[in-house]
Amino acid sequence: MTTSSTPRPAALIVRQASPPNLESPFSSLDGRITPGESVYVRSHFPAPELNAESWRLRLGGQVDTPLELSLSDLRAMPAHTVAATMECAGNGRVYLSPRMPGVQWDLGAVGTAEWMGVLLRDVLGQAGVQAGALEVVLEGADCGTLTDPGRTPGNIHYARSLPLAKAQDDVLLAYAMNGQPLTRDHGFPLRAVVPGWFGMAAVKWLTTLHVTDTPYQGFFQTVDYSFWQSRDGLSPQMVPLTTMLVKAQIARPAPHDCVPAASVFEVVGTAWTGQGDVTRVEVSSDSGQTWAEAELVDPPQTGVWRRWRFEWQTPQQPGTVTLMARATDSAGRTQESGHDVGRGGYMINFPLPITVHLRGQEA
Amino acid sequence: MTTSSTPRPAALIVRQASPPNLESPFSSLDGRITPGESVYVRSHFPAPELNAESWRLRLGGQVDTPLELSLSDLRAMPAHTVAATMECAGNGRVYLSPRMPGVQWDLGAVGTAEWMGVLLRDVLGQAGVQAGALEVVLEGADCGTLTDPGRTPGNIHYARSLPLAKAQDDVLLAYAMNGQPLTRDHGFPLRAVVPGWFGMAAVKWLTTLHVTDTPYQGFFQTVDYSFWQSRDGLSPQMVPLTTMLVKAQIARPAPHDCVPAASVFEVVGTAWTGQGDVTRVEVSSDSGQTWAEAELVDPPQTGVWRRWRFEWQTPQQPGTVTLMARATDSAGRTQESGHDVGRGGYMINFPLPITVHLRGQEA
């Protein structure tokens, strides 16, 4: 007998009430696309309420023609639809020990949506990027004061930069998600979608694009959303986070679920990577000592997670086990067993231990 | 009758015992060059004890010929002597309100010494800098672990970078200070001296020079020793500290000194700037409401402070006054009256209020 649990109600889990940091109920996984009302929300400052009529996107800096575009201007440009898996760089932070500062995300700071908008490269092409340009800074309307002692610059806006090559590749300026206009929490009227990158690059409530020949050094670029990386034989440097890592997650059983002993249970989940495609998922039911191959349900699609399933023969006796999943991608990268301390509270892609309780067979 | 106070004993003031952060007794100002035993000491990690025989300076990265130089090799190269005023970027921090984190320096995290060594440009020339190089990273032997929560990368070394243009200009790799080999606290056997820049650039216990085409992003470059600067109409960014600002300081009277009322007291001090020369010093004895011209004692010498004096007609009655000094440089820059919050605990160059008590005339 094979049992499986059905998706759960899809309400968002509140990790922080204000500003809203809301986690997707990952155990409600069903289709490949996450329903709009279940897409996680990450906010750094209170969500701005922008007026669709008066709002403008300004593009300046090292361009031939600075632009000021209304929402109507953008909607009149060629529209593109891109499905993209987006993961917060701190997804899974609750599994870190010792505890790291920041929102204590479990499994649900990740999701996949279909975004519609214009390509950033089309907007840049309209303005004409000048020779020598290096990056595009994306700044949002969301702003506030940092409370880090001694580091208060007054009011700052959320902003990140992208290398010009990425900006001229596949970055979308989205005005719709899953066929609906963006909600306020998701960045109305316009946000970036940066395929393959962690969510911090997907600046919401976009108001300013600035093309620059100087590396951008905003707080969310160099201090927050950076990690320690060794290079050139020097001591580690703080390097901005960019692409997502290869990672598999178990949606069901959910952590601390009870499943029947001595039966076959269908374990399901998703797996994604920031570059290329996921090619393999494995599951362990003995805390990572042995691994068995899972079946990939979805065909490969760059930038979009693949669902997978695994028929788990549960132990004969009641008790507790630790399930894990790990993925490998087309670049041959796989998940390492531990967390590199240099990553701090970010890029958590060791196989997360999911505790599952086995109950005796029902009569 | 003109009175003046004599220089005080020159013992260093302990601001932090371990690692040693020792302040120069600024009120002991006498000659233009600070005696070696009075030069301030700034340490981030315990002072390494390096062996002069086995120590090597390694130069690598974007060069034609990587080098490994002994102290003898360096001493065999053309020697240069450079007098330079060096100020810690946090000098004067004790005057900030609210209090800022970091060593609570009063007036003495500044001094002027005569350094002897080789020009960094000569070493770079020997190695051959390749086209496309952007910066030179200077790394010291001093190392330790940062305790910033969630940001622990394990052991890191102190390091800073210099733009190639500065590195190929007047930067000295010094093995002697005021005619004596460097002491351990001052970076034995080799340290950088970066004329015009705040002291954080003058990396001590030098072991590694790395020529790179990538902006360096070490902790002491992008997080510590950086400040908030607005540019391009974007929200402030964290920009590495570089050149010293124009600044005058009063050496005598020292803070909270008693001086005779109804007399002429010779106020003395120094003034410096990171670019060009100091051209003017003014003194106020009414908390900055009115200013009177001071006399510059030393001739201009780029990179070296100028001593100044001012004959102060003290008030007729006993009481308390606030003395201030402010400087202007050859670029027309002068000291502003307040501290820009974006500077955090750095670049403190508002005219510091020196409280002085007036005592009645002695019989």
TrEMBL record, chains A, B:
Native source organism of the sequence: Deinococcus humi
PANTHER family recorded: SULFITE OXIDASE, MITOCHONDRIAL (PTHR19372:SF7), SULFITE REDUCTASE (PTHR19372)
Oxidoreductase molybdopterin-binding domain residues: 44-219
The name this protein goes by in its record: DMSO/TMAO reductase YedYZ molybdopterin-dependent catalytic subunit
GO BP, one annotated term: sulfur compound metabolic process
Keyword entries, A-Z: Metal-binding, Molybdenum, Oxidoreductase
Gene Ontology molecular function: any one: heme binding
Name of one Pfam family that matches: Oxidored_molyb
Stored CDD domains: SO_family_Moco_dimer
Cofactor(s) demanded: Mo-molybdopterin
Ranges of residues in domain Moybdenum cofactor oxidoreductase dimerisation: 243-335
Electron transport in keyword set: no
